[in-house]
Amino acid sequence: MKAGTVMTTANQTIKVAIIEDLAEVREGLGYLIGGTPGFQFTGGYVSMETALKDLPRNMPDVVLVDIGLPGMDGIAGTREMKARWPDLVVVTLTVYEDDARIFDALCAGASGYLLKRTSSARLMEGLQDAMNGGSPISPEIASKVIKLFRTFRPPPQADYHLTPHETRILKLLVEGHSYGTAAAVLGSAVSTVAFHMRSIYRKLEVHSKSEAVAKALRDRLIV
Which positions ≥6 away from 84 have C-beta within 8 Å? Predict the structure, then answer.
């Protein structure tokens, strides 16, 4: 694989770990990440159980997680990792495209959902985007996420009193935008988007973008 060109912040190295049971995929991704400037490959794990035990020894910034793992699957593992390390960024990398797994992965706290056929360049851009507060989602998955808003019924009294502008910002984040690209779409400053996101977090009683996206999905806050 050939590493794509990725914009990184000066002197910032993004540390990435992989949880993937297929050796050829795990090793290929490790080679890609380790060979891309601005990234450091911290380790590959064949199972979630091994990762949960060993991650603290060399804590990454981002973990790429397969869903179909032996033992604890990637969705349950994502939920466990976010419970232990709330600031850890988890991005799902999988072959699965069904609504149930997409919904469950996002609700578990995944910041993004990418398919394994994603190009190397787009994958590396997605990791950078996730670190910048975005939600990298494969185009095929993004369309399914929007459809989920129309099929899942909200629980009673799922009203968090979001303003129309806050709802629009939340929708952009669900669609995969970072604060920067959301600000560009809205024609506002990144600091303005961040200000509104603090209000959204307070109203939804969440502490991260992935939690906000999961709650938007679960409670059907975007229509």
Answer: 52
